[in-house]
What does this fold into?
Amino acid sequence: MATIVVLSGSGLSAESGLPTFRDAAGLWKQHPWQELASPEGWRRNPELVLEFYNERRAKAWAAQPNEAHRAIAALEQKFDVAVITQNVDALHERAGSTVVLHVHGELAWARGTGPSRKRQCLEGAPIHLGHTCGEGTQLRPDIVWFGEETRYMDEAREIVALADKVLVVGTSLTVYPAAGLVEFARNDAERVVNSLDLDEIPAGFRFLAGKATDIVPKVVAHWMSGTAP
Ligand code: OAD
It folds into this structure.
């Protein structure tokens, strides 16, 4: 069975009502990431960090997968598909995708701050100061902050390097190392990138400008019918 890898970012969930990071109304335009998404910010003001992620978690849990998430899930009818996502929402899984690597963590989960990092599923529920994991340490969002290690990177590089087709969607490709994954794609793989706009198109990729809910279902329809997008 041919293999497909989908590399997704926040633009994919924009039409589900979740904000991106660097667009005009993006999260990091409104809130400094140093305060909200770094170990230093957490040490300085954990209450503020919890409040920020509690709000995002509740919104992400209330959001629904869109046509693009659903089209990506439908690819599994014909292909061996892996999704590598920088998104912390669960919209890929909720649309039906079964192999999803969250390289920046997951909003729906909390983890302890002790060495074992014991995880606990919250779905859309908040974390408050004093909330502890089974081992007695304060819970924090199970999110990868700036300065922390991105997850599953070895596995992700291998998946990208083996894929017959690569679809990149909704990411500005500015945050490394996840953005560097596109460089591992095979030269003979069919490589497509969809976004509203992009400063730099990765080498060997075809750029399809437009909304994910317009473009992704079309790419998927082509791939399912065996034609080039
Ligand atoms: P960005 O905000 O950097 O980029 C979003 C991309 O999505 C842009 O290229 C937009 O043009 C595109 N876009 C917006 N709406 C779209 C739509 N409806 N259809 C298609 N494309 C659309 O977000 P990411 O690349 O996901 O990390 O950011 C990556 C990481 O940076 C995040 O995981 C987060 C952030 O800092 C951490 O928090 C560690």
